[in-house]
Amino acid sequence: MIDKILKHLQAEFGVQSVALLEGTKQDTVVVPKEHLVDVCKLLRDHKEFYFDFLANITAVDYHPENRFALVYNLASLPYQTQLTIRVELPMENRDENNLPEVPSVSSIWRTADWHEREAFDLMGIYFTDHPDLRRILLPDDWAGFPLRKDYKDAESYHGIKIKGE
Amino acid sequence: MLEKYNTAYQRYLDKIASVGSTEMVINMGPQHPSTHGVLRLELITDGEIVKDVIPHLGYLHRCFDKHAESMNYGKTIPFTDRLDYLASMNNSHSFVMGVERMLGMEDKIPKRIEYIRVLVCELNRIASHLIAIGTYGIDIGAFTPFLWCFRDREHIMNMLEWASGSRMLYNYIWVGGLFYDLPVGFEERCKDFVKYFKPKLDELDGLLTNNQIFIERTANIGVLPADVAINYGCSGPMLRASGIKWDLRRIDGYSVYPELEFDIPVGQGLMGSVGDCWDRYKVRVDEVRESLKIIEQCVNRLMSDYARLPDFDPRALVPKKINTGNQSYYVRAENPKGELGFYFETKEKTDIPRRLKARGPSFNNLSVLPELGKGVLIADLIAILGSIDIVLGEVDR
Questions:
Q1: CATH value at residue A62
Q2: Residue B303 within a domain
Q3: Cβ of residue A116 closer than 8 Å to a chain B Cβ
């Protein structure tokens, strides 16, 4: 199954760009972010794969490296298969004005909308072409991205002390 | 922050500011009883018609992901209990399965432990569905089912408290085993409960399921087509009510579920169309019946093939130090509310994960509300929200 998917993706997008992640218990395909939307569209619409269910999107921080990753867990309801897509996001710095940018897949699976908002909110990943990229769990005026490993608590929020005595 | 990171928020502010003179913005929640917790829905209404729903989450955000990055797996189990606090056993079961699979020890767990896990999970599933059914009744004006459901749920709470020492947040299922074996006499008490509860469920059916007022309020309301449900990542009773037979207990066949007999109820549109509020309610009622079947089978096997032995230690396999190496793993399991997933990403030589993300079913099920809520009456929005059966502990994590 995974060989077939890999072959198909490599034929479509080039052997260099799509790779299988070794040493994992679940099938994982590494995809460059330029091809992400096309790969997802193909995986959803191809009648032999039909990954119509996006279960989860996770953003991972590899501090101290300047590197992030996005992990998409897909499932196919008709074929009862699972697949993981991984997008690596190497960065030059961790500046707040230089967020990693990834194209949004919310046009393919609507559930990605809220998952991507969560990744933006907590990990600071900017999704281009997202219809409504606001913070979701934290207040709209929160500063910083708390799930990053180098996040430092602010002194106070609207006059409320954050760290206790 | 750069200007463009803030544009969506500006757009939202503009949208609220530009509401027309015939329209009104209403805040439903965060302290509204029908939002089942601290959910705030911002409604743009025209008279009684809801034009737009903007959910605001996060009032119950307790940083589960961040906490999990600073402690080992055993210490994280009590935190998983607090995700969907109405079904704590199911949460920890799913989490523990993930860790066990990463360690490669899922086949070594004794059958008795697996049966006990399934037994307590199904008891908890009934408790969770009873809340869903009872509070759904109260949402649309039926008070009695609420009291009946809570009365019967209390029996389950007492039983689980007897086993684990805690009423709602159990910390009972551990990596590689259990906190304790079942107390002596638990199996008999389960049997008594099933015997007591079956007629009560029929009573409840008579009161609510075929109640004409209830049907008027729920049938053909909030119809969720199957393709929309899948696209929005809905799972559990939400997805099954739309007519799709998708139950991870059968699909993945984890734990001892392949050895147990039960059916998967799906929505059939008996009172209206497939995927309406009544179907979602009915699927839950039917699932309670299936869970009772599972409990009976589990108890029978726990009293015969896998009976209690004096030297049986449910903690024998609990690892002293968990070292999973460098891995990434996504585990999923069927919670009362849908697919609960945990995504693990672990490091070498440490029992603290690099990243742990919980995928709450309520979070995804709730995301379909703006789609379902467009153009309905305000009163119907309450009916739709109640039928989704959210737990805010899991939406906000």
A1: 3.30.460.80
A2: yes
A3: no
